[in-house]
Amino acid sequence: MRKPLLTVILAMGMVLAPGASLQANETRVDEVPPFMAVAFENTVMSHYPDGGWVKHWFNRDGSYEGRFSDGTRITARWQVDRNKVCLTRIRPGFMLPRFCSDIVQAEIGDSWTARDPLGRRVRNTLVRGRS
């Protein structure tokens, strides 16, 4: 069976169709397009060269959660801004008030390279489920 084509942001984990424009805080749960629903059921793993990792989860209500390999957890709000997905209201306080990443196409199991908010190179993998 062919896997559905997904669109995922570079250093985070958002599924979105090409060219779509959507702000999470303006979308009711019952208005989320079917292709968006996949985003809320999967994980993007960012792997660092030193062995560290970050798991990224985007939620239907516009919230974001991240968990780092050292146990650190962050929360934020996400929204789509043209061809980027942006995090704002990052907690605990982060050096950047807003971080945006380009949207790229990927399928479950695909990996791609990107940069984190500090400019460090990461390898992202789209993982099925919330792990």
Please explain how this structure is put together.
It contains one helix and nine strands; from the N terminus they run βαββββββββ. Strands 1-7-6-5-4-3-2-9-8 form a nine-stranded antiparallel sheet, with no helix packed on it. The model is unreliable at 1-35 (pLDDT under 50). A hairpin with a 5-residue loop joins strand 8 and strand 9 (121-127). It is globular and about 30 Å long. It is mostly beta strands and 131 residues long.
Major beta sheet summary:
9 strands, antiparallel
Low-confidence segments: 1-35
Structural class: mainly beta
For the largest sheet, list the strands in their spatial order.
Answer: 1-7-6-5-4-3-2-9-8
User: What is the strand content?
Assistant: over 45%
Task: Please estimate the helix content.
Answer: under 10%
Shape: globular
Number of helices: 1
Distance between the termini: 23 Å
Summed over residues and divided by their number, the pLDDT gives a mean of 75
Number of β-strand runs: 9
**Order of helix and strand elements from N to C terminus:** EHEEEEEEEE
Radius of gyration, CA atoms, in whole angstroms? 14 Å
